């Protein structure tokens, strides 16, 4: 099981979104930040970073609103290191 709480607490917002957005709905990611790093929500960083990743092609959203890894997606270092229970 992936330790999302620790990931949210310890990694950059960009890296967390790149890993979680293709797996979880935006509202679920938002909830993790509300519970663990509210300042990211309070200052608008979460939504700005999500939009930035879409614009950079690191994430892709289809016409149904589903999010996928985009053509410019690269795994963050913590994914390569298999931290937080990532396999």
How many DSSP H or I helices?
A: 6
Mean pLDDT: 96
Q: Spell out the helices and strands N to C.
A: HHHHHEEH
Strand order of the largest sheet: 1-2
| Sheet with most strands | 2 strands, antiparallel
| Rg estimate, integer Å | 12 Å
| Unreliable stretches covering 5 or more consecutive residues | none
- Count of individual beta strands: 2
Please state the structural category.
Answer: mainly alpha
Report how far apart the termini are: 9 Å
What portion of residues belong to β-strands?
Answer: 5-15%
Q: Which of globular, elongated, flat, extended, rod-shaped describes the shape?
A: globular
Q: Helicity, in percent?
A: 40-55%
Task: Please characterize this protein's 3D structure.
A hairpin with a 5-residue loop joins strand 1 and strand 2 (67-69). The chain has helices spanning 4-10, 13-20, 26-36, 38-42, 45-55, 77-80; strands spanning 59-61, 67-69. With 87 residues, it is mainly alpha-helical. The mean pLDDT is 96. The chain has a two-stranded antiparallel sheet with strand order 1-2. It is globular.
List keywords for this structure.
87 residues, mainly alpha, two-stranded antiparallel sheet, 2 strands, 7% strand
Q: What would you say about this model in short?
A:
Strand 1 (59-61) and strand 2 (67-69) form a beta hairpin. This protein is 53% helix and 7% strand.
Task: List the topology elements.
Blueprint: H1 4-10, H2 13-20, H3 26-36, H4 38-42, H5 45-55, E1 59-61, E2 67-69, H6 77-80
Antiparallel strand pairs: 1-2
